[in-house]
Amino acid sequence: MRSLSVAVSNLVPQIERRSEVGRGSRRVNALAEEVAAIHEGRGHPASVVGEFRRTAVLVPLDERGGLWTTIHDDVSWIHAFTDEAALARFALARGAGDMDWSYVTVLGARLLDVVVPGVGETAGVALDVGSDTPFFLPPVVGVVPDAAAVNAGHNEEGAP
After folding, report:
1. CA quadruple 37, 87, 14, 1: dihedral positive or negative?
2. Are 51 and 75 in contact (CB under 8 A)?
3. What is the pTM of this model?
4. Quick one: which of 133, 135, 123, 126 has its CA closest to 46?
5. Res 3: pLDDT
6. Residue 26 CA to chain centroid, in angstroms?
7. Gap between the Cα atoms of 158 and 51, Å rounded
8. Are 31 and 83 in contact (CB under 8 A)?
């Protein structure tokens, strides 16, 4: 577990200026490019899911040490971020830029295949919430295991 010490207003520019090299940053860039393509109307959701599965993402922890989630329309959304800059922007948007944010790094596939089904209720992943390019990985067949999918056993129109 790492902690993001946030004097976030100073941290965001530092992180964005930092030049990262290595396989992890290339994977994050590939994910960011796929999400951007979706927002530009030229991408494919399955490509984003594939890149997400191959990418290590940051999942902030709540005050009890659990994964940061919000509930919307009876779905628990686990928040995940592509990098510390995205997490820092989220913290600033919440007015919590003066707090320390602890987080874990999790491979996207593990989050979708192990964590989401382990929640015990309907859950999905919200990627880079608070950014210009958020992306939601809903609890549906093709994204999460069938046992955790709300549409398992239904045809494309939603009928059983």
Report:
1. negative
2. no
3. 0.79
4. 135
5. 38
6. 17
7. 26
8. no
- Residue-wise burial string across 56-71, b where 16 or more C-beta atoms lie within 10 A, e elsewhere: bbbbbeeeeeebbbee
With a cut of 50, which residues of the chain have pLDDT below it? 1-23, 159
> Residue 59 phi/psi, 5° resolution?
-120, 115
> For the packed helices 84-93 and 8-17, what is the interaxial angle rounded to 10 degrees?
150
From residue 59, alpha-carbon distances to 33, 116, 132, 156 in Å are 20, 13, 18, 31
At position 124, the amino acid (one-letter code) is G
Q: In the structure encoding, which two tokens stand for residue 122, read together?
A: 């309907």
Q: Which of 119, 112, 111, 159 is nearest to 140 (CA)?
A: 112
| DSSP secondary structure letter of residue 61 | B
DSSP secondary structure string for all residues of 13-25:
HHHHH----SHHH
Nearest to residue 4, comparing CAs of 97, 139, 68?
97
What are φ and ψ of residue 143, in 5° steps?
-115, -50
78 Cβ partners below 8 Å, 6+ apart? Answer: 59, 67, 68, 69, 111, 115, 116, 119, 123, 124, 125, 126
Calpha distance 102→35 (Å, rounded):
25
